[in-house]
Amino acid sequence: QVQLVESGGGRVQTGGSLRLSCAASGRTFSSCVMAWFRQAPGKEREFVGGISRSGGTTTYADSVKGRFTVSRDNAKNTVYLQMNSLKPEDTAVYYCAADETTVIYTTTLPYAYWGQGTQVTVSS
Q1: For the chain, how far is it from start to end, CA to CA, in angstroms?
Q2: pLDDT confidence tier of residue 26, bands split at 50, 70 and 90
């Protein structure tokens, strides 16, 4: 069982930066692939980025590639999402997800554990 708590959301102007954190409880964090998803009003939840168990492999959605970075600290049971050059279309609730797998899935279904989400608003 893994419990996830996101933090770091807020309001920022276009071009600004935010760093989201996701703290995990439980002893299996290092055996989990971690991912970030987001959901804007009226839209489906979409994949943003993910990271392998060791942190050696990352995958990103094309819409955020080059602007967002996913990282993790297994000693702190925490995964991060550094968001730079933010755009109004990045406005959404951002969710952290985890699953005890070896594959960074880009769809929601494989992920067993989810956080409650944190709001990110980018104003123009």
Answers
A1: 40
A2: confident
